[in-house]
């Protein structure tokens, strides 16, 4: 394989690793943002559970205060009944007392309903809070791991980019410009091997004369179909080597 082709091949392999590493580095913040968003949703649910429980407790307290108010009214009305001057006044007081008693009954029924609702609300809130604590620990661990991975990947990226500069410095500027143009066109694949008289990238057959010229390896050649840089790597022959190293017959 000509030295220039070998350099371009090394460069393409390295560019592939750099691109993969850059994607990994870019994906880590997105991954963290995703789990943080899930945590935020969970947090909002916990807050909603807490708010529902607080509202339940507030309504129960209000109902209990209403009962006390109605009981106080009843006490006053009964005192006033003692001074009723006629049956109409007596019945009026009695009617108001019955109304207050009905209000007390309504508040007591509502308190019982709220108590029944409070138990699962309280259980759900406690369960959600426990799960939230566990999830926060997981998110913190993921964040720490992501920071470590990012630092490690950035270090590797710096090392690979330094190696890339070294490789590029050994390639002719014109050839490097051609490589970059083809690489951008074909999403990172600028050079391909000719295998079985075909371009291994686009799988189009090569003309016989073109393939013969490519095998010489004395010039930079491009696939007539896809435009990628082509190279030919002769297959290794083992039979000749075996015959050469075999012991001579006597």
Globular, elongated, flat, extended or rod-shaped: what is the shape?
Answer: rod-shaped
Approximate strand percentage: under 5%
The CATH architecture name of the largest domain reads: Orthogonal Bundle
**pLDDT < 50 stretches:** none
- Taking Cα atoms only, what radius of gyration do you get, to the nearest Å? 42 Å
Mean pLDDT: 89
Total helices: the number is 5
Q: Percentage of helical residues? A: over 70%
Count the strands? Answer: 4
According to CATH, what is the topology of the largest domain? Helix Hairpins
How far is the first residue's CA from the last residue's CA? 40 Å
Number of separate structural domains:
2
Largest sheet: 4 strands, mixed
Helix and strand sequence: HHHEEHEEH
Strand arrangement, largest sheet? 2-1-4-3
Describe the structure.
The structure is a single chain. The chain has helices spanning 3-81, 87-169, 173-185, 208-216, 239-245; strands at 191-195, 198-199, 221-222, 229-231. The protein has a 4-stranded mixed β-sheet. Strand 3 and strand 4 form a beta hairpin. The chain has 2 domains: 6-164, Helix Hairpins (Orthogonal Bundle); 173-231, no CATH class. The model has no long low-confidence stretch (mean pLDDT 89). By secondary structure, the chain is mainly alpha-helical. Helix 1 runs antiparallel to helix 2. Helix content is 76%, strand content 5%. The radius of gyration is 42 Å and the shape is rod-shaped. It has 5 helices and 4 strands; from the N terminus they run αααββαββα.
């Amino acid at each position: 394989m000509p030295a220039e082709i070998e350099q371009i091949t090394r460069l393409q392999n390295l560019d592939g690793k750099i691109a993969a590493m850059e994607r990994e580095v870019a994906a880590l913040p997105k991954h963290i943002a995703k789990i943080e968003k899930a945590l935020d949703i969970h947090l909002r649910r916990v807050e909603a559970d807490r708010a529902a429980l607080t509202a339940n407790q507030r309504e129960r307290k209000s109902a209990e205060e209403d009962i006390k108010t109605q009981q106080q009214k009843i006490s006053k009305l009964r005192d006033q009944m003692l001074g009723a001057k006629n049956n109409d006044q007596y019945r009026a007081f009695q009617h108001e007392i019955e109304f207050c008693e009905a209000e007390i009954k309504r508040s007591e029924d509502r308190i019982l309903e709220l108590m029944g609702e409070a138990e699962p609300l309280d259980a759900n809130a406690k369960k959600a809070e426990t799960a939230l604590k566990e999830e926060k620990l997981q998110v913190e661990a993921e964040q720490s791991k992501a920071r470590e991975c990012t630092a490690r990947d950035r270090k590797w990226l710096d090392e690979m980019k330094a190696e890339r500069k070294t490789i590029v410095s050994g390639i002719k500027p014109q050839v490097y410009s051609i490589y970059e143009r083809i690489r951008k066109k074909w999403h990172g694949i600028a050079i391909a091997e000719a295998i079985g008289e075909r371009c291994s990238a686009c799988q189009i057959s090569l003309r016989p004369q073109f393939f013969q010229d490519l095998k010489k390896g004395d010039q930079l050649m491009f696939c007539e179909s896809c435009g990628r840089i082509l190279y030919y790597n002769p297959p290794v022959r083992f039979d000749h080597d075996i015959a050469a190293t075999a012991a001579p017959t006597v």
